[in-house]
Amino acid sequence: xxxxxxxxxxxxxxxxxxxxxxxxxxxxxxxxxxxxxxxxxxxxxxxxxxxxxxxxxxxxxxxxxxxxxxxxxxxxxxxxxxxxxxxxxxxxxxxxxxxxxxxxxxxxxxxxxxxxxxxxxxxxxxxxxxxxxxxxxxxxxxxxxxxxxxxxxxxxxxxxxxxxxxxxxxxxxxxxxxxxxxxxxxxxxxxxxxxxxxxxxxxxxxxxxxxxxxxxxxxxxxxxxxxxxxxxxxxxxxxxxxxxxxxxxxxxxxxxxxxxxxxxxxxxxxxxxxxxxxxxxxxxxxxxxxxxxxxxxxxxxxxxxxxxxxxxxxxxxxxx
Length: 320
Description:
Blueprint: H1 14-42, H2 44-76, H3 85-118, H4 129-151, E1 156-157, E2 162-163, H5 171-204, H6 211-246, H7 252-269, H8 273-276, H9 279-284, H10 288-294
Antiparallel strand pairs: 1-2
């Protein structure tokens, strides 16, 4: 199928994106549900700030994961949305809002680690469940309003039946995308770089921190860095070139044709974030490995006749 306005071969991304979305959905859904189940065992009052961060992050992942089957249907239908305009609007907003909500909550986790390790005493009054819940609500609201400002009034094209696609993009949308690159990638990278550097300096000057705690801290920062570099990096770097060049070139359709496939594949790559976020539960939980081993339904060679899994108390370390 060719795009009516720029003569793009839209079908070239179908196989690649279908594979990426299928992998993300099939592995990410059970991983996130299992992590949420573990957090549920803790209870909100017992998990502290990290509990709130992780619940928000995993819920964001789940909402995005639930849109992936619809995007697969859209791709297999030659980029024609088979459902109502309202459903396209809803799914489009959900995908975008949860993408950047995930970025915001990753920064939230990095800042929480920074406060807990670099300023453990001074941050006690702000590192509370109440403040974390309010911060999470503010993040959701600001992310929604920011995405609304760029996607309004519609992400659906009734003539072509495209959903969240337009070729060439509008000037307003290109400006919005540059904003997402600055606020949704460059700024978070700066936050991550600063907090990681300060945490590293603190750990080197704190011999009292155990090697076990060091591994957990480094593991958390490593996962965040991995997500930004491998998952979000290609999408925003290709997008930087595309949308800056949009304002500098007269041949905007030529620009769209040259970058269509790499940009779309990098766009799909962001959904693999859902596979890595559950790793935070492992690094931020004290007893997750023991807990998983204690579950009869997950023990090697266990019989389903043993009934439901036995629950043992978990503990999330509020300090580290």
